[in-house]
Design a protein that fits this description.
Elements (H helix, E strand, L loop, with lengths): L2 E6 L6 H11 L4 E7 L1 H6 L9 H11 L4 E5 L4 H8 L4 E5 L14 E5 L6 H6 L5 E6 L3 H10 L5 E7 L3 H10 L4 E3 L2 H5 L4 E4 L6 H10 L3 E5 L6 H13 L4 E4 L6 H11 L6 E9 L17 H5 L1 H10 L6 E9 L2 E11 L2 E8 L8 E5 L3 E4 L8 E5 L7 E4 L7 H13 L10 H24 L2
Parallel strand pairs: 1-2, 1-4, 2-3, 4-5, 6-7, 6-9, 7-8, 9-10, 10-11, 12-15
Antiparallel strand pairs: 12-16, 13-14, 14-15, 16-17, 17-18, 18-19
Bound molecules: [cytidine-5'-phosphate] glycerylphosphoric acid ester.
């Protein structure tokens, strides 16, 4: 008699889960299925589980594959279960490959291939699950797929890359059922699109997706001119499609809370925001390429611009740039934005390093988020009287992309076009910074070519 065990959330049970259970059962005589509790799912960073534990337990039971069903409540329980039930084989899908190898000390560990062709089943289920396609198959796209496993109610089913070999490799590596170099064909396969292509294609691809009736989550920068940004949001609203600018800080719980706290008046009137984001990269990488789309301002300014837009507002009467160029690309930039007497600053750098913190200056106190503030997991509220300092801790799970994925999934479900976490005006403000920098750069190069 051999015993097999597997675990999962099994939210909105679909063909992928059913196949996994069937194949797990076939590996032995008895199958034990561990269904994760709501609190354990939260603890391990899984967001947005739609069904209650009871519903999920009932759904697993109804498959008829499980001989015994248990609840997984804490990290480390797997070892306990394996020993208690004398398990011979532990099974999970290959999205977990390598992550449970520590269990090899106790039993065999098998990773089964994730089911790829589930969209047809999803459609039959009344499409409760939103299907996503990814445009561009580079580093960030890979992170997106991994992070998507933590968001319930969506599944990545298609990938597009104009180079078919790259698309094929990506879909094999990340178990994506469909890949293509044909953009129109790609658009027929999904409800929503994540755009992670090189910067210069973002706007054109966003519009093509919207025109095809697809919801869009576009990596920053969404576009290069405010006219383009306003046009994209207008189109999305007129056609009831969700459009989200992928500046991940905007959607993480810590930053959201920081904004609310600052706005609550606890530090008095906000008079300045100073934020930096520097990330040293190899001079040969895309980010520093002199193709007109590389450089620190294009790559990084959306983050500090987000902080300024949310905390000080989106109107400004002056925007000044102090970039440092190397081989035609800004390796560092200091940007000053002011409205009346209120001035804020951003420092961004791909070829220069500084402290990556955020300071929100108020008339009665200030907020200090230490580096890397754009992955806000901790900040302090400080006053003249140091005894009044308050410390705030928040989860920032994984790569943080799961929060923006969750946001667009919720927007689609609730049929909203615009997110209050990063709305049209705030997104247009970020674009205005980019547009202002483009104008500055053109002038600077005309003056001294
Ligand atoms: N699965 C699959 N094919 C899919 C989707 C899911 O084979 N298209 C598999 C997963 O790999 C996993 C199981 O179905 O083995 C359950 O998936 P989830 O409900 O997403 O649960 P998960 O977050 O993977 O939890 O302790 C919990 C476990 O570590 C797994």
């Amino acid at each position: 008699m051999s015993t097999v065990i597997t675990y999962g959330t099994f939210d909105l049970l679909h063909q992928g889960h059913i196949n996994l259970l069937r194949r797990a059962k076939a590996l032995g005589d008895t199958l034990i299925v561990g269904v994760t509790s709501d609190s354990y799912d939260k603890e391990r960073g899984k967001l947005n589980v739609r069904q209650s534990l009871t519903e999920r337990l009932d759904a697993v039971k109804a498959t008829g594959f499980a001989d015994k069903i248990i609840v997984e409540e804490y990290e480390g329980q797997k070892i306990h279960d394996i020993q208690t039930y004398h398990v011979d084989t532990f099974v999970l899908g290959d999205d977990w490959k390598g992550k449970c190898d520590y269990l090899k000390e106790y039993c065999d560990v098998v990773y089964l291939e994730r089911t790829k062709d589930i969209s047809s089943t999803l459609l039959r289920q009344g499409n409760q699950i939103i299907t996503f396609g990814i445009v561009g198959t580079g580093r960030i796209a890979a992170r997106f797929v991994k992070e998507s496993y933590f968001v319930s109610g969506m599944e990545v089913v298609a990938a597009y890359n104009p180079h078919i070999e790259s698309a094929k490799k990506f879909s094999t590596d990340y178990a994506i059922e469909y890949c293509t170099d044909d953009f129109d064909a790609f658009l027929t396969r999904c409800d929503a699109v994540y755009i992670a292509s090189p910067h210069q294609h973002h706007f054109e691809q966003t519009m093509a997706c919207l025109r095809a009736g697809k919801h869009v989550l576009c990596e920053k920068p969404l576009c290069f001119t405010t006219e383009e940004a306003e046009g994209a949001y207008r189109y999305a609203k007129e056609h009831s499609l969700a459009l989200l600018h992928g500046v991940k800080t905007a959607y993480c719980p810590g930053f959201e809370h920081l904004v609310l706290l600052a706005k609550s008046g606890r530090i008095g009137e906000i008079v300045a925001v100073d934020a930096s984001f520097t990330k040293l990269v190899n001079p040969d990488t895309r980010e520093l390429r002199n193709d007109g789309f590389g450089g620190s301002t294009y790559e990084l300014s959306p983050y500090p611009a987000l902080a300024i837009a949310k905390l000080i507002g989106t109107s400004s009467d002056r925007m000044e740039f102090f970039p440092m160029f190397r081989d035609g690309v800004d390796i560092f930039d200091r940007i000053i934005v002011s409205r009346g007497a209120k001035s804020s600053s951003m420092k961004v750098g791909l070829g220069a390093k500084t402290e990556g913190d955020l300071v929100v200056t108020g008339t009665e106190g200030y907020l200090y988020a230490e580096a890397p503030w754009w992955k806000t997991s901790y900040f302090e509220m400080r006053f003249e009287n140091q005894n009044k300092t308050r410390k705030y801790y928040f989860p920032y799970d994984g790569d943080g992309l799961r929060y923006e994925i969750l946001e667009i999934v919720n927007m689609i479900k609730s049929e909203t076009s615009e997110s209050p976490k990063l709305n049209e005006q705030e997104s247009v403000f970020m674009t205005r910074v980019i547009e202002g920098f483009t104008a500055y750069r053109e002038k600077a190069f005309q003056a001294c070519p």
